[in-house]
Design the sequence.
DNA sequence: GTCTATAGCTGGATAGAC
DNA sequence: GTCTATCCAGCTATAGAC
């Protein structure tokens, strides 16, 4: 399968698509500044100059790559939350809200083979950076949907002050990002019993854990 | 105070110490590959060649820097856990275990002015990287203490299968790292009501949240 | 649109004087 | 131990032929 190809199949994808796919993987593995345009162009089997032609600059490439992936995630979140609120009459249960938030981030678009895990890693890296560039593209992609989810959580947890919902939302972000990063740490510590790369297992454990955290007694 | 100095006071610290202090901050801000030896040497007001002389290479510098900071954290964790087990007769309460694990990571050595937050950020960045170098230095610094804490958690949660303790430990790591990273995201989403940089506030909210997650019904 | 070629820097590392 | 000077591989970006 394409997911196992180290080098992109040059026959089926456009130059643009090949650049995006390789860049996503290399940025995820080595970080924004750990990979050069030469590595991207050679692995994608495109000319070095074509990256500048299609994306303007390295930052332009990363920014476009990020928003192409992030938009469907934010959309899926909102859609799942809308569906849940329609089903439950405006007050969705906590577990359903949490899963609506996390599931789209972990699965990503199935139309893009092999892109999923790489994008999760990339996103997790950017989310732990303090730099303006990362903060800006994350804000642009996710502010709207995240605020919407905070509202839903406030409604689902009537006894909990808003600021505590916000703290707990922050803890949820950390849990989600570290799972997406899949750094291999817990595999070592658990002697391979845990695999954060397995989306369904991860969700099965994460959602009840987070729900209990959100429901814990207000301070 | 030294914490507010952008440039290290060249009079009081040795060349080695100045390099370490500046490197810690720059690596934390811009990542391992986002900062060059030239930036470090000029900001630390040392000669470029002195970095190679004292640390061998850029990787050597980062590795030494990391283990110098990490060792006291791992030691403090073990000491706090030992104390708790002595106090409670071998079975420390869950909240005490969690705080013993997280507090040393968030406060770091007070002997190093300004280093604390920078090291937390650096550590969070390395922890979300899949690269071998990061995994190796994290393993070296924290495997022993982390395994010890997993044992303590298994003992504190008799009804919970070990693999679930491990999953929840992974979620705890994510929560802790994202708080240490202090990316500014929750400040935006909460209109500045939350500040993960405030250690006591962060702990006050985090410990009960995590404890509830650990105590949630086994699957 | 696609390519070659290259400008103009900056990267890490090191040789060798003192 | 500390410095200057330098190597050369890599970087992003672009000019200009086709």
Sequence:
């Amino acid at each position: 399968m394409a997911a196992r190809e180290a080098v992109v199949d040059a026959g089926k994808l456009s130059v643009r698509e090949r650049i995006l796919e390789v860049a996503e993987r290399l940025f995820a593995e080595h970080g924004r500044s750990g990979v050069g345009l030469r590595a991207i162009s050679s692995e994608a089997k495109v000319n070095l100059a074509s990256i500048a032609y299609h994306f303007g600059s390295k930052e332009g490439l990363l920014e476009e790559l990020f928003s192409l992936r992030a938009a469907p995630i934010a959309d899926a979140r909102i859609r799942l939350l809308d569906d849940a609120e329609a089903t439950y009459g405006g007050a969705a249960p906590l577990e359903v809200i949490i899963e609506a938030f996390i599931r789209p981030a972990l699965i990503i678009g199935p139309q893009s083979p092999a892109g999923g895990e790489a994008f999760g890693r990339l996103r997790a890296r950017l989310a732990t950076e303090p730099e303006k560039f990362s903060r800006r593209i994350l804000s642009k992609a996710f502010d709207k949907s995240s605020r919407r989810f905070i509202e839903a959580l406030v409604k689902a947890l009537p006894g909990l002050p808003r600021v505590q919902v916000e703290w707990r939302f922050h803890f949820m972000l950390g849990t989600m990002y570290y799972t997406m990063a899949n750094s291999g740490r817990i595999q070592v510590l658990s002697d391979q019993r845990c695999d954060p790369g397995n989306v369904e297992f991860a969700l099965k454990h994460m959602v009840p854990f987070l729900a209990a955290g959100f429901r814990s007694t207000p301070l």
